[in-house]
Design goal:
Layout: H1 2-5, H2 11-18, E1 25-28, E2 34-39, H3 40-50, E3 60-63, E4 68-73, E5 87-89, E6 94-97, E7 107-111, H4 122-144, H5 156-159, H6 164-176
Antiparallel strand pairs: 1-6, 2-4, 2-5, 3-4, 3-7
Helix pairs in contact: 3-4
């Protein structure tokens, strides 16, 4: 609690706020830590990978209303993280946090601060994001195929290049692989990301 409260302009007032009606305090980023905020699904998958390495994790905070996860990193005044819906909170940014020993409303510590100042290593977080994005793409690819026979979805793009007779034969075979009532509609393509 002391380590986290030290980021406040007035640590004693911070502790009073934690015991107040909202149970939260607003702390400055950039002094002891920066926060990398990512969409919840990506954040949870990356955190899963980070907890599997033999290194003490840094704090991770979830906001279940905004559907985001924040990873606490060492301060980096020139830190640049690029990606869809990625936010980097450094010097000049503020973060609302609950006390390290409990949740407050929609804010919940997935990994609370350890009091010693342990933070996530940026290189480890970047690698975990790459693994999580790979898993998301693989899951999206699996959803695009027929669960019964593994055939790709039938649509204008998949049948246009093929011979119409071949397309009808594949459609007939695909339809016989399971009862019509169990066929799921084709899912949209895998998300595309750039870094």
């Amino acid at each position: 609690m002391e380590w986290l409260a030290a980021a406040a302009t007035d640590p004693r007032a911070c502790k009073r706020q934690w015991h107040g009606t909202t149970g939260t305090a607003v702390l400055a980023c950039g002094r002891f830590w920066d926060v990398l905020s990512v969409p919840q699904q990506l954040g949870l998958m990356a955190l899963d990978a980070l907890l599997c390495i033999p290194q003490a994790p840094g704090p991770a905070l979830a906001d279940f209303v905004a559907c985001r996860v924040g990873f606490f990193l060492p301060p980096d005044p020139i830190g640049r993280w690029v990606g869809s819906e990625i936010r980097y909170l450094g010097t000049g940014a503020w973060l609302t946090v609950p006390p390290p020993d409990r949740a407050a409303g929609h804010l919940r510590w997935l990994v609370p601060p350890d009091g010693a100042g342990t933070l996530f290593l940026p290189a480890a977080v970047e690698l975990a994001f790459q693994q999580a994005l790979g898993r998301q793409a693989a899951q999206a690819n699996r959803r695009e195929k027929c669960p019964a026979c593994g055939a790709p979805p039938l649509g204008p793009e998949s049948t246009a290049a093929a011979d119409p007779a071949d397309a009808r034969a594949r459609a007939a075979e695909h339809g016989r692989s399971r009862p019509f009532s169990q066929q799921a509609p084709a899912q949209p393509g895998a998300p595309k990301t750039t870094r």
